[in-house]
Structures
1.
Amino acid sequence: MDLASFITHLVGALSTASSLFIVAAGLTLVFGALRLINLAHGSFYMYGAFLATSLVAWSAHTGLWIALVASPLLAAGMGVVVEVGVLRRLYAREHLTQLLATFALLLIFADLALRFWGKGVRSVSPPPIVQGNVHLAGAPVPLYDLVIIGAAVIVGASLWLLLSHTTLGWKIRAVVDDPEVLAASGVNVRMLYTGVFALGALLAGLSGVIIAPQQAVEPGMDAQIIVAAFIVAVIGGLGSITGAAIGALVIGIVETVGASWAPSWASTFIYLLMILVLAVRPWGLLGTPER
């Protein structure tokens, strides 16, 4: 493989990893703080993508830029309603109960999406400013791939700053260890839970907008992304943002290499990798065993 081909494949792998990281970061953040397994996370992603297609149809030039703000806010609003209306009652329940409840929400949101947007497949184009290719060491690289990579870097850095260098981040980390003591100190733990869940939903909606120009927007993409996001989170360690980044990078590389060398086995390699990690470290690469 020459240098140009290597760079092309590397950027493709990083682009895949970046889109997976943004959606998986929201999933693992919610689990880390709330200890909640949320299958409805894929619904927020799908709604973000569908809203982007509607806004682009309304305004081809500015629709996607508006969607970058509107879709994450819509997803965050959905998250608030879901957390307050349903999930708040399930935090003390076992994970199986949470899975069943959030799976029911996934089906409900999927049915509503069919009523709003129908069964057809939709697509959008990137804004003209980020269309076309750029050349890196002689290799043509889609400019929009670099945009996705940049978005993931911004999201990762923002989450790191939030969790490590702000009072809110301290509260989020504290609620994981001892929510009773945090509540006794005067913190509104319920509101904190709602905020964290809304942030996770916002990241899912943002990921849906970012990925819309790269793949078909259609019913069923909610289930597809939640499987991929869970694989990333499980490999990296549920609750670890850094683990989600590493898991997404590993999956991006494995998927890209597999698609080049053994296309019919590409998806199988990902599941085999997850099984291997679970066999060696059931809590993931950077996760911690549940107490």
2.
Amino acid sequence: MGASPVLRCVGVSLVLDGATILDGIDWTVRAEERWVVLGANGAGKTSLLRIAALYQHPSAGTVEVLGQTLGRTDVRTLRERIAFSSPALAAKLEPSMTAAEVVMTARYAALAPWWHRYTDAERARALALLGEWRCAPLATHAFPTLSAGERQRVLLARMLMNEPGVALLDEPTAGLDIGGREELVADLAAWARDATRPAMVLVTHHLEEIPPAFTHALVLKGGRTLASGPLAATVTSEILGDAFGLPLRIDENEGRYTARLV
């Protein structure tokens, strides 16, 4: 069975404005696992990740994160232990912040630096994390002035500020060119191979963005689970052809996946 779950969803459903976005999702992520969530547009991928990050309450079902149950815990405190990155969240960051401030404000899951007092140790940790992700020279640069690839590496550094128990990434390659995408895939592959890093969940539309060393996939279709389990059993021509409603051929080479229309 492996380690205890860091994330567990039981019968999770979400209905918004009369539309069913998620329907009865059962899903467990353990500490040593690295998951990718796949599915067509509208399958419910981002909604599920927002629920896991405690930014959205489900309409039904149970959500447990790091041993705490949504609805029975202070989500503001628990969010400090969940590393969450998404284009929507990045857009809400105070634009005047420097790269160092973007990382440092993760200490309190804050979007601006004004509401908390930060210690010298916290500032030093933010700078050290920027260095770890090859962004040390960017520490004093305003976040919006960075390239898309640089911003994404700063956000990866931000995710580690609190030594989180689980990391959730929603389409981190959005807006990146090929070079930036490949650099990020390599960074995430290095994360996946590092046993000291927390469990990771990556939402993407594109199979070529699945980093090598990822272990599992959850495939959604119409808000329901189509398949869930080890990559070799779930990232297949039959399953993904069903998910996307197209005849697809899925190939794997040295841990990288591609999809082609048959």
3.
Amino acid sequence: MSTRIRIFLLIIAVLTTICNPLDASPIPRNFMRPFKNSYFATIDSAMIHYRIWTTKVKPAKGKLVFIHGFMGSTFSFRKNYDSLVNAGYNILAVDLPAFGYSDRGTWINHSQSSRAILIWKLLDLIDMGDTTKWNIIGHSMGGGTAEAVALMRPGRTKSLTLIDAMFFKRNSGIMSTAFSPSRVRQLKKFYVDYADHYLLTYDRMCKLLKSGYKQKPDTADVTGYMMPLRIPETAEAIVSTFSNCREVVPLNADSLKNIPILVVWGTKDNWIPPRSAALIKTCVPQMELHNIKGAGHMPMETHPKEFNGILVNFLNRVN
């Protein structure tokens, strides 16, 4: 068995072990409007779902964009939006393709640089010429995407917040190479069937969230995550996030040194351990680190009061 196949099967094994306002474009396929503040936009032929919150504070202190992690969606930050809007910030939260209510097209490139290009095109559409800088916030896998967004346009970035995040010194494209076996038709079908029947289930999600939360999730938590994951073609789209992720623009973390950076980590996170913050420190020594005691991989959900306080304090200072 080749090394590439071993790597892919290892990831599958790990997943099994741990859990397993603008004029909106037409809603894709048979999707209903999932939230009152939902909008859809077509970016490079991909239908993107996003949500907008507008503060009543005038003038607004700044603009925030939230980027979720693997198998997450805009739902992942549900306990944070109100506090930030009340603090004076306008918010946009986006569903990355393959997740939430965004496009399930397997042709979409899921590399960090490609995602960053897509997100900036969406932000340009929403800005309509407004040059106010964005505060970018990303969790887990979305932390790497948030990093790429900041690196793609540092002049348009006010700050970067990373939550228990994946982080890269350089976007090498190693994931696309490692998971190339999934492009083989027979293997891809196996991975899709496996994900659909064994990973994307209520029981697996319950176990996954319990592992990430370090506490038992309630029914609303599990249901909120599961609803978009049961949209047809989700399993195939998720497999494509590994097999179709060719980097299109080289990015180097050294370019972050002039951007204010907040890093928040749960002390009990065993998915991406807190020691991972040391890697970020070597690249961006100016980073501000806050550990949330007792939190797992999703401190913004399990410890929202503490998390929101840390984030609002940081944003008020940099904005």
4.
Amino acid sequence: MNSKKNILITGGAGFIGSNLCKRLLNEGNKIICLDNLFTGSKNNIINLIDNPNFEFVNHDITKPYYREGIDEIYNLACPASPIQYQINPIKTVKTCTIGVINILGFAKKNNAKILQASTSEIYGDPEVHPQTEEYNGNVNTLGYRSCYDEGKRCSETLFMDYYREHNLNINIVRIFNTYGPNMDINDGRVVSNFINQALNQKEITINGDGNQTRSFQYIDDLLDGMIKMMQTENNFVGPINLGNPNEISMNELASIILRLTKSNSKIIFNDLPEDDPKRRNPDISLANSKLNWHPKYDLEEGLLNTIEYFKKINEVN
């Protein structure tokens, strides 16, 4: 019996999407990578293009798209860093609403299972710590981050309504801070910022006093969790947290990266952006019990892999 699946990955040329394309392609599946290249890059998938089981389609999910014979869909289409999603906030909201309605309708017509890549940002600046899936969050509906935070919350609502109204086979994962190869050098995320500043002997810029915390998971751990979630029985839809519960401050992260890169960069402090969460840490009990999933990579191991990636990117540039 041929177990090869036809899998559509929206946002497939982005950081997470391109790594997911590669993983699922290596597992023998046929991959259709859908991306409008707003934040994704063909460089991320250049080594996949010649594979006969890989197809790239330049398309924006806010416009309808259809083809037959799709078994699974991973919806990763949306800018994911504040710099990127604030460039065109209305477009970000459209991607999370009109785009999600389009891709859910596509899944319904194909009778395909569909996974939504949601985010820890739906918890906002949390008043509950660590964050469990039952926590409804503390999100500002009017701020500069709201286009993404509220957009992703609406995406989850749409997924659940299609599940209840149309019995659509869905999954929702809430992704906490993730890092690794194929990150955009200019995406403004803290890991890519710190590494590239350190490699280029530039000042390390920390927002606020640096005592705010995050929990960083390596990309391979996230992919393991997403694929396991897609393989669950139909009666478990989530949402489910996927993140590394090892919580560290921005000051600690900067110190580790300076040590690993052997950089002489100095640390400076900027103002904290509006609505920037003070603490962020996932409770992954549900992922552990339902998926038998927990992160395997420790922070330094993952950072070393990421540093090597950015060294090569900096050499090219």
